[in-house]
Amino acid sequence: MAGKVQERRKALRESLTLIAQRHIAQNGLGALRARDLAKEAGCALGAIYNVFGDLTDLVLEVNARTFKQLGADVAEALASADQTPLDQLTTMGQAYAHFAADHHHLWRALFDVDRPDGETAPDWYLAEMGRLLAYIDAPLRVAFRDMSDVERDLFTRTLFSSVHGIVLLGLENASAGVPTGQVDQMIALLLKRLVPAE
């Protein structure tokens, strides 16, 4: 009996995650409503909170899938890129930009999820982010062999933040004057000025 209950909980958890993923992809994180999810899943409103602590936990589950897809897209792009550190970094930066453009609402949800003040993301969430940063770290190890681990970690996060800012401002049509059609060029130019070509 306990096994069947667990199976039903697992099935409901999967169903709610897929429904929430579709809702976020179509309408953005701000439009996600528990009542809509329960209605589409064919369950009581309270059932959501039996399988997830709250809507934030559900969004984090969706975000975990988004992280994995983003990682897969970056890995696929890198597989056909030249092997110089600059080419590798440029390829992954542009792959990141393309993923954000193609999956805009899901990408935004990675960074817009609400958390109580002072509460950090769960360990598994930070681990997924760490896997993405590891893609950046690898070519930097080659390009900057004399850089300490601490400095390289900071530089990795600096490059990610810089590329992320270009992508965010470009896709949001912000007043900073980042033209959407030139995001790839801006990423390439930034990296060309920061990373040696060989």
Report on this model:
- The protein is built from nine helices and no strands.
- The protein is mainly alpha-helical and 198 residues long.
- The model has no long low-confidence stretch (mean pLDDT 91).
Could you list some keywords that capture this structure?
single chain, 198 residues, mainly alpha, Arc Repressor Mutant, subunit A, Tetracycline Repressor, domain 2, 2 domains, 9 helices
The helical percent reads over 70%
How much is the radius of gyration in Å? 19 Å
CATH level 1 class label of the largest domain: Mainly Alpha
Helices and strands: which structural class? mainly alpha
Q: H/E order of the elements? A: HHHHHHHHH
Strand residue content: under 5%
User: Tally the helices: what do you get?
Assistant: 9
The number of domains:
2
Task: Furnish the topology, listing elements before pairings.
Layout: H1 2-27, H2 34-41, H3 45-51, H4 55-79, H5 85-102, H6 104-112, H7 123-143, H8 149-171, H9 183-194
Characterize this entry briefly.
The chain has 198 residues and is mostly helical. It contains 9 helices and no strands.
